[in-house]
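Issue 218. Parser rejects a valid record. Input:
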Amino acid sequence: AGKCKPCLFAHTKTGCCNGDACQFCHLKHPSRAPRPSRSTRNRCKQIVAMVTETAGDTEVLQSFAKQHPYIERLLTQEIENRTRSGR
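Output the parser choked on:
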C-alpha cells in the first residue's frame, strides 16, 4: 500500500487509453488536495521562515502548523529537520 503510482486518467470521463498495458495503478486512490498557487506557496514559505526564526520549540511550530495544509507540510518538514539535527 502506498507504493504504487496511480494512473491520472483511469477514473476520468474518457479513461486510460493504455488499458491493460498501462504501467500505472488503476485502483481508486484517495484524492489529494490541489496544489496551492505559486503566490500562496511563496507567502506560506515566508510565513514559515518567519515563524521558525522566532519560535524556539517544536510545540509552537506544531500548534501553528494547523493554520493551512501547505504550511502544515512545510512546518512538518522543518520539525523533522530539527529533530534530526538535535535543535
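Fixed in the parser; the record now loads. The longest helix spans residues 38-54.
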